[in-house]
Each structure stands twice: as C-alpha cells, then as structure tokens.
Amino acid sequence: MSSPHLAVIGGGQLARMMQQAAIGLGIRIRLLAEGDDASAAQVIADKIVGDYTDLDILREVVADCPVVTFDHEHVPPAHLQTLEAEGHACRPGPAALVYAQDKGLMRTKLATLGVPQPDFSLFDPVVDPNGVQNFADRVGGYPFVLKTTRGGYDGKGVWFIYKESDAAAALASGRILLAEAKVPFVRELSALVARSASGEVAAYPIAESVQKDGMCHEVVSPAPDLDPALAKEAQQLAINIAEQLGVTGILAVELFETPDRRIVVNELAMRPHNTGHWSIDGAVTSQFENHLRAVLGMPLGSTSPHRSWAVMVNILGGVVDDLESRRALVMAQDCEVKIHLYGKNVKPGRKVGHVTVCGDDFDDVVARARRAARLFVEGDTHE
Amino acid sequence: MSSPHLAVIGGGQLARMMQQAAIGLGIRIRLLAEGDDASAAQVIADKIVGDYTDLDILREVVADCPVVTFDHEHVPPAHLQTLEAEGHACRPGPAALVYAQDKGLMRTKLATLGVPQPDFSLFDPVVDPNGVQNFADRVGGYPFVLKTTRGGYDGKGVWFIYKESDAAAALASGRILLAEAKVPFVRELSALVARSASGEVAAYPIAESVQKDGMCHEVVSPAPDLDPALAKEAQQLAINIAEQLGVTGILAVELFETPDRRIVVNELAMRPHNTGHWSIDGAVTSQFENHLRAVLGMPLGSTSPHRSWAVMVNILGGVVDDLESRRALVMAQDCEVKIHLYGKNVKPGRKVGHVTVCGDDFDDVVARARRAARLFVEGDTHE
Predict the structure, then answer these.
(1) Are B340 and A27 spatial neighbours (Cβ–Cβ below 8 Å)?
(2) Which of A117, A341, B53, B191 is exposed most, by the fewest CB atoms within 10 A?
(3) What is the mean pLDDT of each run of 10 residues along chain A (383 residues)?
(4) CATH of domain A187-378
(5) Which one of B284, B288, B355, B375 makes the best mutation probe of the A interface by having the most chain A beta carbons within 10 Å?
(6) How close is the nearest chain A Cα to the Cα of B61, in Å?
(7) What class is the A119-181 domain?
(8) Which residue, among B13, B199, B269, B273, has the nearest Cα to A24 in the 3D structure?
C-alpha cells in the first residue's frame, strides 16, 4: 500500500464518517483503533489495533504520516507533544486540544478572552472541602452544576446539585471539580466552524440541539427563529475562539441561548461533532470533509445547506437490537430519509447511528426525521 | 470481523464509490480486487486479492456472503451460474448480465422486445467472409460500425467503417462481429434506473452525456431542453428493459437522440455508470446507494436532484501526473466543486477521477465544472 496522508487516532463513528469523505478526496487514512471490529476499523483498510495511551503504539501508527488527527479528545497531551517534537503535525495540536480535554483550563482561558460563560469555580475537594459551599454562597445558592474537569462526556462526570448533599458523589470522585452556575436557557445552540492549518475559517449555520439524558438527541439546522444578529454573533464567537485557541480542524461551540436572547458558552469540542452530522446530507461540504481539508491545510469547502431545513435525530440503542431488520422498514416508510449506521453493537442508550431528513417544510421535515428514528429505536411502525 | 453482507467482485472506482454508500448504510462489503492497491482495495478492509476468472478464488470471496455484485461485467457467466447453484445470489444474475457482456445477444434480445435500436447484423468473419459487404449492401453503404460482441469498453473493440478496407482490423480480430448502422444523432442521452431484487424500480432524470475519444467525458443532468415526453419515454424504456431482462441493481441505457427527436438504444451497462456519478453530490440518493439497496432487496431511495443542474466532468490522465498537487488549487478556485479522486496512477487518457458542480444557473455550473476538470488535467490556472 502507498503511504497514508493522515493518521486518525480512535476508531469510533467520527473516524468512520471521516473515511467517507476521505474516499472522495483521495485521502489515505491510517487508523489506530481500539479493536479490529471498531466502527471505523470495519471500513478502513490501513489500520493498527492498539491502545492510544501507549506512546510506542502511537509512534508506530504515525510513522509515515505527516499529519495526525483524532476521533476523540482522550490522547494524553504529553504523547502529542512528543509526536510533535518528532515531526508529526498533530491537528488540533496539544496546545489547543488541552482546552477540550480539561474543562477547568477551558473556563479559565475563555474568561481571559472575555467570552460569555457561566460563573464558575475550580477546586480540589481534598484540599478545599468547602468548595461546594463557597460556590453556593457566591452564586446565591442552588441549583448549580459540578463537573469533573477531565474525562467526562455524554452526561458522564456531570452532577446537578440541588442541595449540598447532592455533591457527595462528585466529591467522592477524588477529582478536581469545576462548579458552574446553572444558566437559565431557552434552548441549546451549536456553532460549528472549520479552521484550516492555513488559518482560513468557515462557519456552518447555527444549529439548535435538543439534549436527552445529557446526550445530543436531535439537531435542527438552521436553528428556527434565531435572531440573525445573534446567529452572526455566535458564528463570530466560534471563529474567535478557534483563532484564539489555535484550533485546527472542526471546532464545535455548544451554547445556551438565555431567556433574554444572549448566548453563553457551555462546552467546546475540537473534532467533528454530533451537532454537525446533518451536514453530511444537508450541506455542500460535510463537517467531515472540512475537517480533513482543515487538518491537511487545504482550502475549505462551502458550508451552504442544500435545502431550507435539515433535521438529524440520533439512533440510540433501545428495544430493538437488530438495526438491520429495521433499516428496510425505515427505507420503505420514507424514500428521502438518509440512514447512517455505525456498525456498533446495540446497548441501551448507546449512539449507534443517526438519520437526517432535508426539505423546505419545517414541520414535515421534523416529523419525518423523528418518525424514522423512532422506528429504529422502538421498532414501532405505528404513528 | 463480522460476516460481510455483500461481496463485490472487482476493485475499480465503482466498487470504491459503493463503499462510500455502504459505510452510511452499515453494509459490510467483502471485496475481490486485482491488486492490494487497487482503487477500491485502498478503502475496503475486508478484501481478497485474486483473479476473478478463477472459480476457486470466487468461491473463497463469496463463502459467507449471501449476495454478490460487481464492479465490472467481465466475470465468466459459467462461474456466476456455479455460484448461484451453490446458493449465492448474483445480482445482476448471469441470465441478465449476459446481455451486458455480449453485444450480439443484447441486440438480438432487444429486437425481440421491439426496442428502438440501429439496424444490425451478427456474423463470424471466418465462416462468413462477406459479412461486411452484405451489411453494407443492406443498409445502403458506408459508414457503419463494427464491434466485437464481447470485451470491448471505452472505445476499445469498436471500428468505424467508412469503406470496405477499414474493416481489415476488425476482421483480423478473429472475433464474432456485430455490424451496426451508424445512427445520425444530435446528442447522447443516458437513462439510469435502479431495480431492486423485490421488483421495485426508480428512475433518475435523463442525463446528457458528451463523449470524447469513445469515452464518457461530461454529463449534464437533467439533459438540457429535452422534450418532457421524450424524457418520460426514455425512463420508461429503461424500466421496461430492466424488467424484461431481469436486471437487479443499476441499469444504464445509453441512448442516441436522433435529429427527428427519437431515441435509439446504443449500449447497456448493468452496474453504476459514469453517466450517474453526478448523483453522489446531486441527488438525494446516489446511484451507488441505490445499487446497494437494489441488490440487497431493500426499498429504493429518492432519485430527486438537490438543485436544477448537476454537471460532472471526468478527470482523465493528462499532462499533470500529480493529482494531489492540483487538488488544493481546484478547492481554492471554487469552494463548491465536489472532487472525487480514485486513488489510481495517472496514465494518459485513464479515468482517474471526476468533479461535480451543482447549482441553478446552467451556464455557470457548466463553466465551473469544466474549469475544475481542466485544472486537474492540464494544470492550467488561466481562464
């Protein structure tokens, strides 16, 4: 086989969907996957199975790859610094990625940039046992949110604190904790931008994201009835953050929209993001193609949508564990539904795929996307 | 690895583009490729390298695959019959595929179906040395066309006969020959349909195809200024042929449009076809996804286009042999161009990729698609 152009660390569905874009562009990916049957390992020929925390494995994977990118944010920063020192361009690089890896560093950095975000406090419960009470006093009581600064995702490592005793599990985690004031919000938005190694930036339309049990569940692009000035402000905010943090690739900025129509930063992700999956079927250039273009220093593609609305709904593991038996039913129900299955075993609540419907009638598009996902998840053929 | 759902015989760009669609649908492909670095072998993990004329290799590839499909039409029909007898569903099956493999059988069969096609004659020059003269007498002289009945493609195995002596090379081929009257035509059209194993059919818009040196070069979908009644007739003709020949998968019917606005069948192909590549970026469901759905007996997807026009131009091997060095230039020139590189070494005249532009302004879309392809082929950055 010829040398790869790009190493991708992590064999999840994001790497799998990068491969669809890579095939078109003629980009050869070498994958580091956690198992031979991982989602992306099923569809990438040039792969190594191993542990991304093992520096020797990482070195083997990137050996003849000039550029390295990621399916997830969990590679130890010290390893990335070593790979960079050894001549491999990590994109995003460790200096940027740390702000997606550590929520405490992210909050502290965004504060210096003057980015709108919740009031917060960082403390180590071992040396600061009154951290919870002190934060409650400062923000005027409960409720608020405690998060571990590292390693949490999809609702894991997050605790909602309605009274002091709710903090017990968080304190028992033995981890540095981030306390965040609970932001009253009317909905969640996502600002997705690509930033190329050349510095070029491209912003996708601002999407609305509906969470369920702490996980992204449904995304509507563009966010309905969003004030155009606020949409512009959110895009510019994401571009500024990408530039200030030196992000290369896709940056997703998860936002709260407050009742008084302001935006507040919730989370950052430096990789293709669930809130951008609609772009595979709904935009001229998907977030996966633009991520590849960005990390390889290529010019970015148009983020224009094909139709007025794109609605994506996740397929979570549910009652039905045989997705393939449902696939034909979903196809038969609606010939315009775009189906994405990740090749993963079904477990309750696990993201195993998504569906997207694009069109010009909002109510119709939303109803059809939900109906298709419901058929996958619940196996329910009734309306 | 889990068992594959589908075996694909042949590692060319059609199998490569099938894989993009298969990733989305969660369909696992096992590939038989002619080399480990063949176009599709680069992007399919589960693959065997071997010779598709070797029955034992075919048996190894399809062993745990219920369904078999094809990147090309060259697998010996007897082998396909054996695989079918051994319980593997070949789609399209040998009884249909023979009409794409043998132009003589195709003409004879279409004649029995009353399909409009050129006057023709089949003869073996060894036993019928006057075959050329007899055909010339019958159709009123020259010019006409001689073709080998098997093995020709992209202009190979085709001779234009302007006088009797032009037939020498064809006669010397030692092959059964098909003589076809030359059809006066104003342009070439393509009618592309998918037919599922269930019998369901779906037709794409009729496209116009511009040939260059006997190869498809540029495709515009839909064909500009085509009489809607003739478009409907062409779609219905392709559906009828698919049904009458028992085709499963994509059927491409290449047509001549005559000066008096009739359609005449030129060639058939029973696989995704160059004239349908525009559908990857320009339609709700690409021809590759519908081919997979069809051969696996799934309901078909919508063939609706995203925009008013889609224009595809092939990238043929030319002056520039480093496509990757051109890729970023093409991207920089036009952020809406969709690039498809096949991972093949550049040889003069070889199809190594294609570009597609979609939009609503016909002249603009045509000009931009041509400009992008020219930059790839000629390395010319000037207008």
Answers:
(1) no
(2) B53
(3) 88 98 97 97 97 98 96 95 97 96 96 97 90 92 92 76 90 90 95 97 98 87 98 98 98 97 96 98 98 98 98 88 88 98 91 97 98 86 49
(4) 3.30.470.20
(5) B284
(6) 17
(7) alpha beta
(8) B13
